[in-house]
């Protein structure tokens, strides 16, 4: 299987430098990212509330529909340079590599795929045995995001994961031989978890020299199996304060080892941040394909968001016409998004900008004083930044700032 693009190393992008200025990037010849939602899983994890199905016999039909939706989006992609492609889900690693490669070939015929662009796949360790990683690399994938969740056997059992701790470590090490960038997901706050157990997970990831880590605090989402078992008293998750201690432990240990905490849940060594995710957080254009996928599009300075129906059968019936949400953002909505997303990546919020756009800007100094006294923010050179503790309250802080 021959690669469709150069599989050379990803160009290094230093995260010790300021983030580039936001641009409107969806005019002809400008950049766009693409997200593909692959909605298939073998089973639903107890804590998961993402849109997915367990009917794996629909995979072939889904990729036929995906091709139709992609061709319908050709006018949006024409002459665009694709910055990143991200296959998420669901479990994209369940898909035969030939189907993933076929879609990449199609997309590359509609838009510019520059050498060294990011092509990423979310994967479960149990799907990557044999020649799978070699075939993925040959197809053009240069980044993989591993849904490890833990390197501790007890935690994996509590989460209902299929892979073993040994297999998770083996795949983590092997993936670094095949891909330019490897990310590992870890979850803290699992039922019964202690701070010492969490430290063991962090140590395992550090020992494996993983260049990118996503750290998530387990949340009990509505209508999940976990919510029902917690409500019945069958399991108990750690208290919020204990989860916060685990999160702050991750920040301290990872940053001490040279990782940059570049987004609420994400840590990377230089050059290994997720280009697709960072583009979304910086409000750069991206096209979402597949059921429940979201898009952010910019045309002549007008910003639009849209979303596909969260139904596989509806998507298969009309992949080119399954959009159920479409809106043009107002100036106020753009302001709110800018504040929330800027705080997520802690790029610094200009205090003057906040005062100019808030209707009741006189309340801002009082808020700054309150948040600073709590140790949540710092203000440097006229810009507001979150502290490590402040990341725990990012949405609360943003909500207060936009309604002050």
CATH topological fold name of the largest domain: pyruvate-formate lyase- activating enzyme
Return the string of H and E elements. EHHEHEHEHHEHEHHEEHEEEHEHEHHEEH
Mean pLDDT: 88
Radius of gyration: 21 Å
Q: Do you know the CATH architecture of the largest domain?
A: Alpha-Beta Horseshoe
Principal-axis shape equals globular
The number of distinct structural domains comes to: 2
The termini sit apart by 57 Å
**How are the strands of the largest sheet arranged?**
7-8-6-5-4-3-2-1-9
Q: Largest sheet at a glance? A: 9 strands, mixed
Strand-residue proportion: 15-25%
Low-confidence runs (pLDDT<50, min 5 residues)? 1-28
How many E-type strands? 15
Helix content: 25-40%
- According to CATH, the homologous superfamily of the largest domain is tm_1862 like domain
Assign the CATH class of the largest domain.
Alpha Beta
Number of helices: 15
Structural class: alpha/beta
